[in-house]
Amino acid sequence: MSTVFKKIIDGEAPARIVYRDEQITAFWDIHRQAPVHILVVPNRVIPGANDLTPGDDALVGRMVRVAAQIAKEQGIAERGYRLMINCGSEGGQTVYHLHLHLLGGRPLGPMLAR
Ligand code: 5GP
To answer: Among 16, 35, 54, 82, which lies 20 to 30 A Cα-Cα from 29?
Structure first.
């Protein structure tokens, strides 16, 4: 299965990549919602949170830790930031390749739009 994110991970589509290892790639979101908006994505296509298995526990933990490291590198770790995973249509997911949004660089306000 391919996704736009898989194409980025495989070097078949352009992106501003900030981190890459054997399990995870992170790159800037094409439609930034905040001064820092980076997506942390597993290299293997997992459609969404509903598809995670116990074998993915370490991977998801690593995604969070990589996001925190990137926040530090972007200079927003002390001020604070938000990590977010959207799941399914009511959760606002549009790309069915699991991804963690790292958002920050300004006060982000309430967690949900009212
Ligand atoms: P979702 O709504 O699924 O949680 O988030 C998908 C995110 O992927 C959106 O914030 C959207 O702007 C971003 N996105 C969609 N297509 C591309 C793309 O081709 N390149 C990059 N860098 N981001 C994308």
So the answer is: 54
Pairing of strands 81-84, 36-42: unpaired
pLDDT, one tens digit per residue, over 83-102 is 999 999 999 999 999 999 99
97 is catalytic: no
Residue 81 located in a structural domain:
yes
Residues within 6 Å of ligand 1 by CB:
4, 15, 27-31, 86, 92-95
The tally of domains found in the chain comes to 1
Residue 110 confidence (pLDDT) above 80: yes
* Cα 34 to Cα 87: distance, rounded to the nearest angstrom: 20
